Amino acid sequence: MSARRKHVYFAMMGLCIGLFVLAWGLVRLWSVPAAVGMCVVAMVIPPVAAIVANRRGPEDRWWDDPSGDAQSDEWWDELDGKKRPRP
Cα angle vertex 33, ends 27, 42, to 5°? Predict the structure, then answer.
């Protein structure tokens, strides 16, 4: 996971916790519907944060990394239409 995505994830989760604490610690004293609304917004943040944190960036590689087995790598490259220089 890149550092930027990690920072965004933790910022979003911190915002989520902050909204819950602020909603039921302070806002509910003035408006319960506003506190419930803040909790609904906070409820949506964790799935979005997980999606952001697990998104694959253009610099990330995982499916096309060499496995270490030359014959297997050559076979998969042939299936994918790639030409790899022979060592």
Answer: 70
